[in-house]
Amino acid sequence: MKVFKGLFIILLHLVIGNVISFCTGEFIPGSVLGMIILFLSLMAGIVKEDSVRDVALFLTDNMAIFFIPALIGILEMWGLIKMHFLAWVALLTITALLVMAVSGWTKQLTDRIRRRK
Protein backbone atom coordinates (compact mmCIF):
# COMPACT_ATOMS: atom_id res chain seq x y z
CA MET A 1 0.00 0.00 0.00
CA LYS A 2 2.93 2.32 0.71
CA VAL A 3 4.07 2.02 -2.93
CA PHE A 4 0.65 3.08 -4.20
CA LYS A 5 0.67 6.09 -1.88
CA GLY A 6 4.10 7.13 -3.15
CA LEU A 7 3.07 6.65 -6.76
CA PHE A 8 -0.09 8.68 -6.12
CA ILE A 9 1.92 11.52 -4.56
CA ILE A 10 4.36 11.65 -7.47
CA LEU A 11 1.62 11.48 -10.09
CA LEU A 12 -0.44 14.09 -8.23
CA HIS A 13 2.49 16.51 -8.39
CA LEU A 14 2.89 15.73 -12.09
CA VAL A 15 -0.78 16.52 -12.72
CA ILE A 16 -0.57 19.74 -10.71
CA GLY A 17 2.51 20.73 -12.71
CA ASN A 18 0.72 19.97 -15.99
CA VAL A 19 -2.31 22.02 -14.97
CA ILE A 20 -0.14 24.99 -13.99
CA SER A 21 1.84 24.65 -17.23
CA PHE A 22 -1.34 24.58 -19.29
CA CYS A 23 -2.79 27.60 -17.48
CA THR A 24 0.39 29.62 -17.98
CA GLY A 25 0.75 28.97 -21.69
CA GLU A 26 3.05 25.95 -21.37
CA PHE A 27 6.18 28.09 -21.10
CA ILE A 28 7.69 25.53 -18.68
CA PRO A 29 6.84 21.83 -19.18
CA GLY A 30 4.39 20.41 -16.66
CA SER A 31 6.74 17.59 -15.71
CA VAL A 32 9.42 20.10 -14.72
CA LEU A 33 6.94 22.16 -12.71
CA GLY A 34 5.69 18.98 -11.05
CA MET A 35 9.23 18.04 -10.01
CA ILE A 36 9.82 21.53 -8.64
CA ILE A 37 6.57 21.41 -6.66
CA LEU A 38 7.42 17.93 -5.34
CA PHE A 39 10.90 19.15 -4.35
CA LEU A 40 9.41 22.14 -2.53
CA SER A 41 6.83 19.89 -0.85
CA LEU A 42 9.61 17.60 0.37
CA MET A 43 11.74 20.51 1.59
CA ALA A 44 8.76 22.08 3.40
CA GLY A 45 7.87 18.77 5.05
CA ILE A 46 4.45 18.60 3.39
CA VAL A 47 5.46 15.30 1.78
CA LYS A 48 7.57 12.90 3.85
CA GLU A 49 10.59 11.31 2.18
CA ASP A 50 9.57 7.84 3.33
CA SER A 51 6.27 8.06 1.47
CA VAL A 52 7.92 8.46 -1.96
CA ARG A 53 11.31 6.79 -1.41
CA ASP A 54 10.43 3.30 -2.76
CA VAL A 55 8.79 4.59 -5.93
CA ALA A 56 11.54 7.18 -6.50
CA LEU A 57 14.24 4.51 -6.14
CA PHE A 58 12.43 2.22 -8.57
CA LEU A 59 12.03 5.01 -11.12
CA THR A 60 15.65 6.13 -10.88
CA ASP A 61 16.94 2.55 -11.00
CA ASN A 62 15.00 2.01 -14.24
CA MET A 63 15.58 5.43 -15.74
CA ALA A 64 16.95 4.03 -19.01
CA ILE A 65 13.38 3.14 -20.01
CA PHE A 66 12.48 6.83 -20.12
CA PHE A 67 15.20 7.58 -22.68
CA ILE A 68 13.88 5.14 -25.32
CA PRO A 69 11.38 7.62 -26.87
CA ALA A 70 14.07 10.31 -27.06
CA LEU A 71 16.50 7.88 -28.72
CA ILE A 72 13.89 6.94 -31.32
CA GLY A 73 13.30 10.64 -32.02
CA ILE A 74 17.04 11.16 -32.50
CA LEU A 75 17.25 8.23 -34.88
CA GLU A 76 14.35 9.59 -36.92
CA MET A 77 16.10 12.97 -37.24
CA TRP A 78 19.59 11.57 -37.90
CA GLY A 79 19.76 13.12 -41.38
CA LEU A 80 19.27 16.62 -39.97
CA ILE A 81 21.62 15.99 -37.05
CA LYS A 82 24.32 14.67 -39.39
CA MET A 83 24.27 17.92 -41.38
CA HIS A 84 25.04 19.98 -38.25
CA PHE A 85 27.01 17.39 -36.30
CA LEU A 86 29.66 19.70 -34.80
CA ALA A 87 27.02 22.14 -33.59
CA TRP A 88 25.16 19.26 -31.93
CA VAL A 89 28.34 18.01 -30.24
CA ALA A 90 29.08 21.52 -28.93
CA LEU A 91 25.51 21.93 -27.72
CA LEU A 92 25.50 18.57 -25.96
CA THR A 93 28.86 19.26 -24.32
CA ILE A 94 27.78 22.66 -23.02
CA THR A 95 24.43 21.41 -21.72
CA ALA A 96 26.06 18.39 -20.06
CA LEU A 97 28.50 20.66 -18.25
CA LEU A 98 25.67 22.97 -17.18
CA VAL A 99 23.61 20.04 -15.88
CA MET A 100 26.57 18.75 -13.87
CA ALA A 101 27.25 22.20 -12.42
CA VAL A 102 23.63 22.86 -11.47
CA SER A 103 23.23 19.34 -10.05
CA GLY A 104 26.31 19.78 -7.90
CA TRP A 105 25.16 23.19 -6.72
CA THR A 106 21.69 21.82 -5.88
CA LYS A 107 23.20 18.91 -3.93
CA GLN A 108 25.40 21.30 -1.94
CA LEU A 109 22.42 23.55 -1.23
CA THR A 110 20.21 20.69 -0.05
CA ASP A 111 23.05 19.35 2.14
CA ARG A 112 23.42 22.76 3.78
CA ILE A 113 19.68 22.96 4.38
CA ARG A 114 19.61 19.46 5.90
CA ARG A 115 22.50 20.24 8.24
CA ARG A 116 20.60 23.24 9.60
CA LYS A 117 17.63 21.10 10.65
Please give a structural write-up.
Helices cover 83% and strands 0% of the residues. The protein is mainly α. The protein folds into two domains: 1-61, no CATH class; 67-117. Helix 1 crosses helix 3 (49-61). The chain starts with a helix and ends with a helix.
Terminal residue distance: 29 Å
Helix- and strand-based class? mainly alpha
Total number of beta strands = 0
Task: Determine the number of helices (DSSP H or I, runs of at least 4 residues).
Answer: 6
**Tally of discrete structural domains:** 2
**H/E series, N to C?**
HHHHHH
Uncertain residue segments: none
How would you summarize what this structure contains?
The protein has about 120 residues and is mostly helical. The chain has helices at about 1-25, 30-45, 50-60, 70-75, 80-85, 85-115. Helix 1 crosses helix 2 (about 30-45) and helix 1 (about 1-25) crosses helix 3.
Any descriptors?
2 domains; mainly alpha
